[in-house]
């Protein structure tokens, strides 16, 4: 029998999602799973939370990251003693923060937005990068994790690859206690956003985050989980109903998009976005655009729409009806 305990420490974030959780695994070694956001406030809250379980930052031997988003990797670089950092290999560029990486990121979105005929005022990738860097952390990834790995120092915790919300997303399954640390893959109170990212290698086809996300949810159905420990919101159980609900809602949204496309004919992803998220797209452009392209990828995957290019612009049209 392995003796260990998992403690949740919650810190505030400057993001709309609100608070984020970090988990301290006390066992054979002291590990931190996820590292909050890089603000002084979050660091202070973290140190205070550690104190309550009789620990201090220098006790953290290793940090294990669920995914690369700033509110999960933020404090990684704040430790003076440099704990060993584990995560998916795709977390690495976000920790290294090389100019070259961000140039590639910028090029990818500029090309895409050009193809989707996105007005200039929404092409604020520079700002997205600046905010991401500000709340992230510059540090090193020492070990890559992938499907099935057992992490040293936390025996019994197995790595499950769960891409979609982020390409780098991993979940951690503790079979002994039937607990799963699930990052942002499945949250009880809000649905997760599958976010568009550049492909790992420049020039490759872009990832299709919603399709990956659906697969990750289906994968979670295979596990008999007693308790999910998420990145945001309360721990929960009953994931089967929750996943069914999420998938149903997504399919319904896609259905609405298809009906609209049948009515309006070929449209660019941008045009669909302004209709689908009429109230949110101006303030949350990247997010709503990711969500829109997700629905289009899904409709394309079930053979309901085609992607056609005309004069360098990408349009989506239904396959079932004749175009006027
Ligand atoms: Zn996230």
TrEMBL record:
Record key words, sorted: Hydrolase
Record GO terms (molecular function): hydrolase activity
Range of residues in the leader sequence: none
Chain ranges of the Metallo-beta-lactamase domain: 19-232
Pfam families: Lactamase_B (PF00753)
Family matches, as Gene3D superfamilies: Ribonuclease Z/Hydroxyacylglutathione hydrolase-like (3.60.15.10)
Domain of life: Bacteria
PANTHER family linked to this entry: METALLO-BETA-LACTAMASE DOMAIN-CONTAINING, METALLO-HYDROLASE YQJP-RELATED
Name of the molecule in the record: MBL fold metallo-hydrolase
Organism per entry: Allobacillus salarius
């Amino acid at each position: 029998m392995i003796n260990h305990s998992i403690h949740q420490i919650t810190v505030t974030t400057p993001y709309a999602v609100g608070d984020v959780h970090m988990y301290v695994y006390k066992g054979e070694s002291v590990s931190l799973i996820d590292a909050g956001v890089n603000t002084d406030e979050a660091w202070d809250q973290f140190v205070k939370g550690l104190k309550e379980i009789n620990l201090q930052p220098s006790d953290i031997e290793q940090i294990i990251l669920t995914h690369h988003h700033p509110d999960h990797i933020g404090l990684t670089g704040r430790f003076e003693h440099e704990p060993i950092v584990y995560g998916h290999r795709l977390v690495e560029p976000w920790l290294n923060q090389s100019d070259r990486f961000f140039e590639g990121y910028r090029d990818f979105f500029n090309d895409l937005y050009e193809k989707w005929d996105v007005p200039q005022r929404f092409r604020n990738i520079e700002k997205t990068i600046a905010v991401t860097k500000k709340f992230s952390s510059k540090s090193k990834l020492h070990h890559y994790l992938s499907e099935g790995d057992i992490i040293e120092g936390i025996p019994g915790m197995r790595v499950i690859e769960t891409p979609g919300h982020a390409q780098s997303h991993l979940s951690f399954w503790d079979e002994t206690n039937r607990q799963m640390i699930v990052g942002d893959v499945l949250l009880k109170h809000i649905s997760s956003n599958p976010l568009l990212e550049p492909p790992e290698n420049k020039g490759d086809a872009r990832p299709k985050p919603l399709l990956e996300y659906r697969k990750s949810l289906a994968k979670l159905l295979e596990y008999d989980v007693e308790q999910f420990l998420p990145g945001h919101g309360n721990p929960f159980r009953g994931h089967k109903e929750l996943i069914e609900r999420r998938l149903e809602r997504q399919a319904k949204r896609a259905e609405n998009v298809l009906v609209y496309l049948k009515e309006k004919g070929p449209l660019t992803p941008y045009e669909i976005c302004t209709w689908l998220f009429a109230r949110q797209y101006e303030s949350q452009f990247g997010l709503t655009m990711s969500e829109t392209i997700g629905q289009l990828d899904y409709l394309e995957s079930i053979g309901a729409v085609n992607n056609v290019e005309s004069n360098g612009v990408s349009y989506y049209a239904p396959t079932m009806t004749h175009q006027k």
